[in-house]
Amino acid sequence: MIERDVVIIGAGPAGLACATRLKEIGVNDVLLVEREKKLGGILNQCIHDGFGLHKFKESLTGPEYIDKYLEKLINYKVDILSDTMVVNLFPDKSMILSGPWGREKIKAKVIVLAMGCRERTAGAIWLAGTRPAGIYTAGVAQRLMNIDNYMIGNEVVILGSGDVGLIMARRLTLEGARVLMVLEKLPYSSGLPRNIVQCLEDYNIPLYLKTTVTKVHGKARVEGVTYVKLDDEGKIIPNSEKFVKCDTLLLSVGLIPENELSREAGIPIHPVTGGPIVDDTYQTNIEGVFAAGNVLHVHDLADWASMEGELVAEFAKRYLEGSLPRSKNWIDVKAGEGIRYVLPHKISGKLDVNFLFRVSYPSRNRYIVIRDGNNRVIKRKRIINLHPAVMENIEVKAEELKSAEKLEVMIE
Length: 412
Ligand SMILES: Cc1cc2nc3c(=O)[nH]c(=O)nc-3n(C[C@H](O)[C@H](O)[C@H](O)COP(=O)(O)OP(=O)(O)OC[C@H]3O[C@@H](n4cnc5c(N)ncnc54)[C@H](O)[C@@H]3O)c2cc1C
Hints:
412 residues, alpha/beta, 7 helices, seven-stranded mixed sheet
């Protein structure tokens, strides 16, 4: 069996950033495994700009952003196995790879999970009606249009206001389709506010909140959908049904971190994020197995996924050197009032921590407060605009955590 120091599973922004950072800080034995032929993950199909504003201080398209890392990969001579999938992962940090050359079992001292996420489908949301041609998830439509050069439809209804759907509303319009409406079941959009402006308002595409699709019509091809209004509790308002004629229904109804391998290895998955439960070094319950990027929680910007990959590289190096102590007394971190989730889920109290969190509903002019088990305020930060689509953060120094036994992050 081949043995390696570090194996990174997935070569999207998180995996690429982790691989290049490991080389920069002197870890030589790094193997990057990617199931696609091309490295770069989802960003290969994101030909719009806006990537890299934080990481590179310039607005890049997805492929331009990835190119920055590919240049480094070549310079650093990172070992790469593309067109190769990790098909099994075991708790002893061994795994089975499957590629055009066959299958191989390898074992690593460190594994970085960077497998990204995938989209929820019509089946996942129990969409009623027929299943004709013309129903796409937004990411599949993005791939068909931006990589394979197919036009997917002419009259489009978009269900869900996630960022990928919003971006595709603009893309379809620019390619000559009519995007009739975007329907969202929540009372607010689940996409970034900047995408609502740049992808809908700039093109006069209406967004109907508290609205959903109840039925798809058509046999060979979509012929229309029935949509309804929802009340404050999300229940259908009687007699609110309307029919809209369209030939395409695009679904942008959420992303799911790809954790089949993590589960197989016995790594507990957080019920809200869908990603592994990690400590303040981004380590899972298996020592030496780290997670970064969308496999851990769905990020709002690829830049943050890359930065997480780099942070994990630093921890992985210390783990290899034996200088990353494993805590025995964890401080649990709980998401309190108004917070949907907070990461890391448990901390040692010995390291500075940048807590990442998402709120449950939009609000303005609020304080994010971290309290310890005795209700003592550890940290308070004012945020003007809070929106569930936007990932927020709050930094805490190790010395501020001295007497904490548990922590709760909340909105006040
Ligand atoms: C359909 C879709 C469209 C998106 N569009 C946008 C957008 O327009 N703008 C934006 O800012 N963000 C977009 N995102 C979010 C974007 O995915 C993230 O910002 C960023 O790509 C996350 O980086 P990552 O490295 O964590 O994951 P990814 O980019 O998803 O990379 C994960 C990689 O892991 C590989 N992999 C998975 N499992 C295995 C395995 N078992 N073996 C080997 N390799 C494996 C995958 O092939 C993939 O290349 C989109 C996400 C999706 C799902």
